[in-house]
Specification:
about 15% helix, alpha+beta, seven-stranded mixed sheet, Immunoglobulin-like, 6 helices, elongated, six-stranded antiparallel sheet
Length: about 400
């Protein structure tokens, strides 16, 4: 009799253990975007026109032939600026379990009130019963929706995209993507250049200048290449006063970058804010004026958007022109031009010009920094950008180069 009781207890224990085994697998891949538009999800119907996530729902090995699974998709927002604290923007969930017998692939675009069935990987229809169980109270978030109406974009804030799969035995799998959304709006050229009216103030001393701009960061990672940030492109063209009446007209003409006129803009990379004019694009010619512009591509839920910078102009200094009567200004080698740009015309003429200590001398191209040899392009980048320094908050800034002393040797 005692043996029978033990057997029943063991059987009950084994039965409980079998129910505790996982029944489902739920893999979710999130689609990265820079900007999210309200139109991506209709908070009244759950309808989406862009993929936010792609998921695969499957039965674990050893699970029953069919398993009931509930799915829910929720967007939660935190925004101090809007006074919204962990509010649900919209929550869509099944009112009856999905009957899972074969693998099912689904996305947020399937989870809307107009969809009553999807198909598993064997082509079998699977009934889908959905409802909007929670959404943001319009009266409680007038400020937020006013901002959305003005821009169409979800305002800056922390957004949680959450997908939950719950099997009939209580097993729950939660997948989240938490994003700090800051809609990029800044794109400003820094150097070289300025207005077209006075290019003498915007001269560069090299045919291969380093171009620099400022832009707010993009919270984006390219899913194919793994590169982070928005992608930047450059366009550079010569300004010809006899042909062009404005910088806009010049930038739309034949370009030096890109050389292939069919491209429009030359790609320079993801998340970058500097670019050195490449040697294989051909020298920028002394005495000529050039205009340049940067384009920033942002991947949004409404497609790829482009942000264009203003246009700036600069002039490549011509040391052989009549403007420079001093013989000391005739060293037009890259090293000589870099040296002159570092110490300035006045001091360069003093040293290398008539009566100067180094009259008639020219730079030999050997450049060292703290005893180590460096390329002339490094010096050019110091001139264009300055020296990188780290502030107390960890941010990097560029300080102008300061010349303490000049030593000349034969």
């Amino acid at each position: 009799m005692q043996y029978s009781k033990i057997s029943k207890q063991v059987c009950a224990f084994l039965s409980w253990q079998s129910l505790a085994f996982p029944q489902i697998e739920f893999d979710v891949n999130w689609t990265p975007y820079v900007t999210y538009y309200l139109s991506m999800v209709d908070i009244n119907t759950g309808e989406s026109n862009m993929p936010i996530f792609m998921a695969e729902l499957s039965r674990e090995s050893g699970a029953a032939d069919t398993v009931g699974v509930d799915i829910e998709f929720e967007i939660i927002i935190d925004s101090d600026a809007l006074g919204v604290d962990h509010e649900t923007l919209v929550k869509v969930e099944t009112t009856q379990p999905i009957i899972l017998s074969a693998d099912i692939h689904l996305s947020n675009m399937d989870l809307n009130l107009a969809t009553d069935q999807i198909f598993d990987d064997h082509g079998n229809p699977v009934a889908l019963h959905l409802d909007i169980t929670e959404q943001l109270d319009m009266e409680q978030a007038e400020q937020m929706f006013s901002a959305i109406i003005q821009t169409g974009q979800l305002p800056d804030g922390v957004y949680t995209f959450r997908v939950v799969a719950t099997s009939e035995d209580g097993q729950q799998i939660v997948k989240e993507d938490i994003l700090n959304i800051a809609n990029p709006a800044t794109l400003q050229l820094v150097s070289p250049g300025g207005i077209l009216a006075d290019t003498t103030l915007n001269e560069v001393y090299t045919s291969f200048p380093v171009l620099q701009w400022e832009s707010d960061p993009c919270n984006y990672t390219n899913p194919i290449t793994g590169e982070s940030g928005c992608e930047f492109f450059i366009r550079l063209a010569e300004f010809k006063s006899q042909e062009h009446s404005s910088m806009d007209q010049a930038i739309e003409s034949v370009t030096r970058l890109p050389l292939d006129q069919s491209l429009g803009f030359e790609p320079v990379g993801f998340g970058v804010t500097t670019f050195q004019y490449p040697t294989d694009a051909g020298d920028l010619e002394p005495g000529k004026v050039y205009v340049w512009q940067i384009r920033k591509d942002m991947t949004t839920t409404a497609g790829t958007e482009q942000l264009m910078s203003d246009i700036m102009s600069f002039k490549v200094k011509d040391f052989t022109s009549a403007e420079s009567s001093d013989p000391g200004s005739e060293d037009t080698s890259p090293a000589g031009m870099a040296l002159r740009s570092l110490i300035g015309d006045e001091l360069a003429n003093q040293i290398f010009g008539s009566g100067g200590e180094a009259e008639g001398m020219a730079a030999n191209g050997t450049i060292t920094l703290n005893g180590e040899s460096v390329d002339v392009s490094f010096v050019q980048s110091l001139v264009s950008m300055g020296i990188v320094t780290e502030e107390d908050d960890g941010n990097e800034t560029y300080q102008p180069v300061e010349i303490i002393s000049v030593e000349v040797s034969e």
